[in-house]
Amino acid sequence: MTNQGAAVANAPAKINLYLHVTGKRADGYHLLDSLIAFAGTGDTIEASPADTITLSCDGPFGAALASEPDNLVLKAARMLAGQAGIANGAALRLTKRLPIASGIGGGSADAAATLRALAQLWQLTLAPDEMQKIAARLGADVPICLHGRAAYIGGIGEIIADTAALPEAGIVLVNPGKSLSTPAVFKNFCGPMSAAKRFDSMPLSTHALCELLATRSNDLTEAAVALVPEIADVLAALAQTPGALLARMSGSGATCFALFDDSLGAARAAKDLAMRQPSWWVQGAALISSHP
Ligand code: C5P
Questions:
Q1: Atom 11 in ligand 1: which residue has the minimum CA distance?
Q2: What is the pLDDT of residues 112-127, one digit of tens each?
């Protein structure tokens, strides 16, 4: 139940439909070209008035986070308060439905949702580009999560170029129950670098979208599979699922996804796969181009 006077923000899963690593900066960060969309499933942040900034976690993966002393949600809240000169606190409640450290935004989506919820609770009037600067300081994926609309990302993730809405599609997300550290995957990546490969225009059908995506890749897959070999099993299972149009890993893994004609087909496939692989986290949803 939502507390009275609370501001609520959704933190949907972020999906890298393709992810090309195009170069490496002198500071070690990698340059990317990636098409991002979201899934109609994710975490929720609720911010209620309070004197100090506190965080409680619930939901299926809440307990796994409770042991982390200083996660990205608290960092985001403190950074926003500092930037906006806010003396008030907030009681933050994170309902964690997405697996931790899993390549679908998780912590970054939560941080972005925290910024949105607190801007509403504290009635801030920071300009969008000021909010984006705070997001970029929190992590490379936070700006696109704050943006909240399908877009290409460039640079290390902070350069956002809007795209037309994606065609309607369903998505099944699968995680083999293994968390994977993003820095470890990037460290394990040894090339080759790819060229940026943005679409000339957004296809109108899901089938045409998947045909274009099939000529692109997630360049981090091999580096991630070397650390968590189960990713290869997940990709094989998704590819063999009836109705799956494309199977791919998202971000630095270990979560993989398959695209379907619609969310009904995705829900059916998710149910079947969850029965066959009860130890995996399996979730069916709609692929979404924007969220509030
Ligand atoms: O920015 P964030 O904290 O999410 O990044 C975690 C780590 O992932 C970085 O310290 C870096 O090692 C790696 N990374 C990278 N290139 C990116 C994004 C992240 O090398 N574009």
A1: 183
A2: 999 999 999 999 989 9
Residue 106: its H or E element: helix 106-121
Amino acid letter, 4:
Q
- Whole-prediction pTM: 0.95
Nearest ligand 1 atom to alpha carbon 107: 4
Q: Residue 102: its pLDDT value, please?
A: 86
Q: Are residues 205 and 114 in the same domain?
A: no
Q: Are 110 and 21 within one domain?
A: yes
Residue 1 lies in a domain: no
Residues 26 and 124 in one domain: yes
14 among known catalytic residues? yes
215 falls within a domain = yes
Q: For a pocket test of ligand 1, which of 25, 30, 34, 159 has the largest count of ligand atoms closer than 8 A to its C-beta? A: 30
Q: What is the pLDDT of residues 221-242, one digit of tens each?
A: 999 999 999 999 999 999 999 9
